[in-house]
Write a structure and sequence with these properties.
This protein is an all-alpha fold and about 250 residues long. It is about 75% helix and about 0% strand. The longest helix has 28 residues, at about 135-160. The protein starts with a helix and ends in a 13-residue tail after the last helix.
């Protein structure tokens, strides 16, 4: 096992995957720190916050669930919110399945834990053809998620352990929002994603008065609906020879 891990780390694609994620680790780390601080200050405590960070490993659903937990929201609302916030991973995993289908199921389940938004974007840029090539794709995937996981967990754990020493007037919440905006803009690659993102933002603001952060559910539902409609009626233009949409 040690030899296999060593060979994986030495693989050129592992190094390339790690390098491709380095440019966005600052935003990931800022958001991880904000999430770690928010978990403790919402009343979860250090132990539960550490457990949540390591087990859930999904910043958006963690932050969406915190005010619901603090307000004593019904469990079904908590589960529904987390499910809808992470619904995008169903789409990501369906795409990744085309690459990783030859792998054993246990290995695919293990891969699923480390799957993340920007790893998905980087992976598709590296392997645009939906064809399995485990010899190169698996090392690239692990190189990217190794960078992403560390860039998230280390600041998140630091935020959990130092939450009581970080003043709220530092404006970390605003810094986290800016970081998340930067990460989100990197996912807006064509007309359909831009329109879906704009609809989600407008829906979230319009439904902001709803209790228990239900505006998040409204925004996701609106974005998914408009995205599906645009895929059906206005499909993206096929890429040209230089890789850009026509």
């Amino acid at each position: 096992m040690a030899e296999g891990l060593s060979a994986l780390v030495r693989h050129p694609e592992f190094k390339r995957g790690a390098r491709d994620m380095l440019g966005i680790t600052l935003g990931i780390s800022a958001w991880g720190l904000v999430t770690g601080v928010a978990m403790v200050k919402s009343g979860l405590g250090v132990g539960l916050s550490l457990l949540m960070s390591l087990v859930v490993f999904a910043g958006s659903s963690q932050l969406a669930s915190l005010p619901l937990i603090a307000s004593g929201a019904p469990l079904w609302v908590l589960w529904a919110t987390s499910f809808c916030v992470n619904l995008r991973f169903v789409i990501f995993s369906a795409q990744w399945r085309r690459y990783f289908e030859p792998l054993p199921r246990a290995q695919r389940l293990f891969i699923g834990y480390f799957a993340a938004d920007l790893n998905y974007v980087a992976f598709l840029k590296r392997f645009p053809d939906l064809k399995p090539d485990p010899e190169h794709q698996v090392p690239y995937f692990w190189g990217g998620v190794a960078t992403n996981w560390v860039a998230w967990q280390v600041p998140a754990i630091a935020g959990i352990l130092l939450a009581d020493r970080i003043p709220t007037h530092w404006g970390l919440g605003f810094a986290g929002v800016l970081a998340l905006l930067g990460l989100s803009f990197s996912l807006l690659k064509d007309r359909n994603t831009w329109v879906s993102g704009a609809v989600a933002g407008c829906a979230a603001v319009a439904a902001y008065a709803l209790p228990l952060r239900l505006n998040i559910l409204v925004a996701i539902a609106a974005a998914v609906a408009i995205g599906l409609l645009m895929e059906k009626w206005l499909p993206p233009s096929p890429p040209t020879a230089d890789g850009r949409s026509a």
